[in-house]
Amino acid sequence: MHILEAQQLTKIYGHHLSLKKALTNVSLSVEQGEFLGIMGPSGAGKSTLLNLLSTIDTPTSGRVMMDGRDITHLKGHALAEFRRRQLGFIFQDFNLLDALKVRENIVLPLAVNRLPVDQLQGALTHVASVLGLSELLDYYPSELSVGQRQRVASARTLIVKPQLLFADEPTGSLDSQSATEFLQYLQTINGQEKMTIIMVTHDAFTASFCKRILFIKDGQIFSEIIRQGDRQEFFDRIIDMQATIGGGGKTNALRSGD
Amino acid sequence: MLYDLAIKNIKQNYLLHSIHIVITALAVLVYFDFSLMAADHKLIRLYQDVLPADQMLTFFSIVVAVLLIVFSIYWNRLLLKQRYQDIGLLQLMGGKISKIVLSISLEILISELIAFGIGILLGLLFYKLLAMILLKISVFKLNIGFFYATKPLLLTLALIPILQIIIFLNNLITIKRHSLIKLLKKKDSNRYSPVPQNRAYLLGVLVIGLMVAAVVMTQHVFRLTYELSWLLHLPESFSFLLVFLIIVGIWTVGMYGLFRIVWPLIFKLIGQNKRFYFKDTHMFTLAELRSWFIQNYRSLAVMSLLMGVAFSMIGIGTLLSRYGMASVDGYTPYSVLTTSKKRAAVVDQLAKERVSYYELAPMHGTVIPISYHLQTVLGDDYVSVANPGLVLTTTTYNYFAKHHHVKTLKLKNHDAALILPVTSIIHDRQYQETGKRPRVKIGEYADLNFNIVKLSNHFPLGQALSFDMAVVVNPSDYAKLSEGIRETYYGFILPKNLSSKAADQIAALDQVQYYHMTDSYLMKYGKGTSKKNPSIFFHNQVYLRQDQQRDMRTAIGLMMFTGVFVSLVFVIAIGELLMLKRLTVAQELEKDYQTLLKIGVGPKRLKRDIIYTQGFIYLLPLVLGFCQSLMVAGVLGIFVNRPSLHLLYLITGVFTLIYAMLYLLTTAFYIRTIHI
Hints:
Pfam families (chain B): FtsX (PF02687)
Strand content of chain A: 25-35%
Shape of chain B: elongated
Mean pLDDT of chain B: 85
Radius of gyration of chain A: 19 Å
Low-confidence stretches of chain A: none
Order of helices and strands of chain A: EEEHEEHEHHHEHEHEEHH
Keywords (chain B): Cell membrane, Membrane, Transmembrane, Transmembrane helix, Transport
Structural class of chain B: alpha+beta
CATH superfamily of chain A: P-loop containing nucleotide triphosphate hydrolases
Number of strands of chain B: 14
Radius of gyration of chain B: 31 Å
CATH architecture of chain A: 3-Layer(aba) Sandwich
Mean pLDDT of chain A: 86
Number of helices of chain B: 22
Low-confidence stretches of chain B: none
Helix content of chain B: 55-70%
Number of domains of chain A: 1
Largest interface: A-B, 30 and 27 residues
Structural class of chain A: alpha/beta
Helix content of chain A: 25-40%
Protein name (chain B): FtsX-like permease family protein
Number of strands of chain A: 10
Distance between the termini of chain B: 37 Å
Strand order of the largest sheet of chain B: 3-5-9-6-8-7
Largest sheet of chain A: 6 strands, mixed
Oligomer: heterodimer
Membrane topology (chain B): Multi-pass membrane protein
CATH topology of chain A: Rossmann fold
InterPro entries (chain B): ABC-4_Integral_Memb_Prot, ABC3_permease_C, ABC_permease_BceB-typ
Strand order of the largest sheet of chain A: 6-7-8-3-9-10
CATH class of chain A: Alpha Beta
């Protein structure tokens, strides 16, 4: 069952004298409970695609459907309501509010949803214990390590149990250990809570935690790979596809007969 | 190269420079026009009999210049803070500090030249309009044309190098004081953390206590003056200055504490109400406000104090005008008042002008040295030296009292009523506070030490003839007076004002009448002589209320004109500084607002929060400034009978509207900066 469907998405930036086509006629669908990765070289249009899918930006043409509902042109209160109830975001630079403590950052989306304080407290306790943040609740973000900050950002997203989680280079600022822990956590919630995740990354290791990967090149979908075997095998295929996009890789080698 | 860099920086920071240009141009306009007015002999001549208008305008133009320098230094500091990283990078690439500072100075110079150009041009264009406003509120029916003089222009232009030198030195010192590593750090290193909560409670109580103490002290400023004077054996004037400085000091410390400790603590306490705190975006709003007060407590305290100065200027002007007008308004029942010597000339003149009038019955009295002991709010006896005063009988007084709706007096033997002028420093309220009767001594009569049963400011002569006081006694006591000078006064009531020409002719009949006190303190007439001699007094012989009113309005008009414009510069400067600071905050918080949007906070709700937050931030200095002006008015009000603050309210209302426009502009720019 499709939870998200993009139809003929095109995005053009700039004004009439210098137009730049960031995406051209991109169509895709995402299944409920899927862990989808979006990869591609710099400037390929990965983040643009994520922004269009997640309602952060609007397409020049085409539309995005979620559960059969067109969300492309949602505005104002309806858009805010939709984001609040259905979507979650995790970003590379965490986007935590420096003036608020960890506990306040985490519960902010629930407070915006006007959840009663006791329920809010319960949800906080649960998510903090799952993400190992219970000891850090009274700190300010600036007092935490980058790994801890990313966990706080994740907690803030997960506390609302969104149907769809968007992650834009979520491990970009993390060291390898923190990144692995974080990705394992994403894998867990994807498996256990059936949360659909769409993640943009340029890192093959990070992408290897996904179930399916779309490769974007020059604003169009270049290819798609689906995980079938173990993560190592999937990782090798990702590396090969990255090389292919760059002009090398096994596929190109076979074609050229070398 | 430096020029190109400066131009590029101005283009990139156009909003920052626009704020600088607006306030500088306004200050230059006021400074230049005040200087032009001071040099405009045609204008100044109109005030020569009333006030030294040129000196007054020059003084206030200097106040504006000082404000401009302070604003420029402050604005430059904010600009410099934004450039720390760039300056660090330029140093890293081998740039000399002096050259870097020079490039910033050049940028500021270009901005200043634009502002001065606009200010001077507008000053020339609006000179006539401003001069006409001044003349209108000074009640002059006169047309004044365009005026130009080179000296005011040069004086205005001289401000540019002064500002440049100050800013250059300030920047040079600031950059040299910062290490390269500090400059390269993007965030301002000068950040403050909140005061720990347990200590904040104690300090908060202390701060509130200090502010309450300052307010209470203003209510008892004269008592404190006296007691300090007695305790430290200081002259009263010095003691008053000391009390004033102590109050200002306490209030200033309190104001700093209010922003540094009390407000952050209040937001913290509000946050302890979980239901409220964890609802909507309250926690973000409260955290933002708390951080705003902690980071900016010094400038907010200074802004509030300056706002207080601005409104206090208006408050003082309002009360002084009330004080001045009291001597010529309804308290003075006559249109014309003369001594017997001048009565015939006045009647002739009125007849010549074919003016209908109503003449009151003559008022007979005796001019004689009078002294009194009165316990004032200072807490001890106030003794007037023996000055000429007028002694009246109850019969005479009652006649006028009835006419002017004042209670008639029924005095027993040796009872008396002391009547002080409306503008006297001692008035009803002070008298009521002491609850003690004054004792009055008339001349050298040992048996006429009166028991004062009434203190009033309903002086039948108003302040017309410059007597310090009058004493009303019963006819039998009056009959005992064989010394002093018998004077009879004649009052005329005119149904409408005289023409200016006729008024001038009546006023021209006035002559100064001299009184000499002899060795035995009795009075005799004399001729003009040195006014420095303490035994010689004089007063006018013809009083024309219309003429006095005109002079008073002229003086008040000039005072209010200068006060209002200088205060306006203050208010706009404060509003613009707030705008500058809030837009810097907007740049810092843009990402936070975008995050809030992404987690599903609606733009409408964010805008609403911003409007409230900005409103609170803007309202606070306004309210505090207004409260300070009321405090100042409270102190001055002791001097003024029936103090009326309507003018203060009116001008405050107009200023509030202008300030509100700055608030709305700031809010609009803020919302634009954070892209919601």
